[in-house]
Amino acid sequence: MSGPAAFIQKFIPYVDVKRNRKSHLGVVKKLSTNRKYPELEVKLVRSDEEIGMQYDLFHLTDEFTGSLPEKKADYIRMESERLKATNDRTAYVSIDNKMAASCATIREGIKSAIIIGVFTNPEYRGRGFGTEVLTGLFDMLLQEGKYPYLFYSNPVARKVYKKIGMTEICEWCVLEV
User: What is the DSSP letter of 54?
Assistant: First the structure.
């Protein structure tokens, strides 16, 4: 069960809550920053090789431990099927044929998309490559008339999102019952 915290909190006395996770919801309606590295192409994942690069990127930290299949081939198959069956997309920037940063959409619809999987290779952190890929993806979405929505709990992510143009909507709550 998830939704705006002010609404979801009213259900707590009536359900057996196993876990209560709080985050925030934001939206970008207009970019408030320009790309720092316009010479870097923000690419969309189109091939199994690129999906494999993303799998390798996610395995550079423990952040995605437990949420990815153990076998790279399984991830490539699952992600390839997801991207073919939906309007979702994964954007990335690469440096020296290495994926430096990536982010993706889910539930991409006519007017909106939820942003997920924002990740920067630890080797490239602190240099704006995460902001670069987000700005590129947000620009694509906004040009198509779609608003990017973000769920976040990380204060560093919040700072980046606000710099790009995110407006905070509300505190968000996810109850595991």
Answer: H
* pLDDT tens string 10-35: 999 999 999 999 999 999 999 999 99
Let me know how long the chain is. 177
∠110-27-94 over CA atoms, to 5°? 85
What is the CATH classification number for the domain harbouring 117? Answer: 3.40.630.30
Task: Return the SS3 of 158.
Answer: helix
Please give the order of strands across the beta sheet that includes 147-152: 2-4, 166-176, 19-28, 147-152, 112-120, 98-106, 90-95, 43-44
Q: What domain range includes position 96?
A: 2-176
Token pair, residue 170, equals 């509300």
Per DSSP, helices labelled H in 9-152 are 48-58, 72-85, 129-143
Return the half-sphere exposure (C-beta side, CA atoms, 13 A cut-off) of residue 149.
15
User: pLDDT band at 64, cuts 50/70/90?
Assistant: confident
